[in-house]
Every structure is written in C-alpha cells, then in structure tokens.
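hey can u check if this looks right to u? its 144 residues, i copy pasted from the old doc so theres a chance i mangled smth
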Amino acid sequence: MPYPAREPTFLPLTVATARAAADNPEQSELTRSARVVQYCAEAANTAAVDTWTAMLAGCDYPGRRALPSRLRELTEATSVYVGTQWWYGDGSVHRRRVADAEDRIGEAAQDGDGAEFAEAFVGYDQAVAAVVVRVQSQMGTSAT
C-alpha cells in the first residue's frame, strides 16, 4: 500500500489497483476507463466510511444511504473496464463473487452488523481488485 490510512479504508486493494491502472502514461480508452473505476472506488470507499461511522454511532446519517448506489456504480465501472463479453462470459465467476459480496454488504448495513459489514467488504474488495488486475495482466490484448 502506498501510505497508511488515517481513517477506515474498506477498498484498499481496489483503489490501489485502479490507481495503478489509471497511472498508465498512455492515454488509451482502457486508461480512461481505469480512471472511472478509481473514481468510483474512492467514492464507494467514502460511502463505506460514512456507513461504518453511522453504524458505530447508531444513527441514520444520510451518507449511509449512498452506499448501495456507490457500490453499483463501482461494479458497473468495473464491468465496463473488463469488457462485457468477458464479464458475462469467462468472467461470470468473478461477476457472481462481486455481486454476492455487494449483496452481503447491503444486508449487513441494513442489519447494522458491523462484523458482517467488514467481512463482506473484504470479499468485495478482493473480488473487484482481482478483476482490475486481470486486465492489467493482459495489457496488449483486447479486454472487450
């Protein structure tokens, strides 16, 4: 990791891998798509921090309600980054892992289960980061 977090971090792998992909000096469509993934990952992480804080405080902070849409945006940006052909074909196992973890996060947030929330985020972060790394490892081949 490039630096230790000063606040809770729920998507460290995804943010780091998306940032690395977005830092490619080549201004390709893939690089622009990686920047969208990075932006969505950072926004989802912020929403997760807000949700976590609200859960710990036992309140219904408005930022907490933003989490489901931020996660959907990150999942969608990731699917565009890897290409829909792979996402719905060979990558369907990854797609299901991402979707299952996303569902677990939503249920845990709704139930106020902090342990399940944190555990589900570990799975979601690993699943999304693995997809981003898959594209980076195949640079030079078509991702769509």
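Confidence is low (pLDDT under 50) at residues 140-144.
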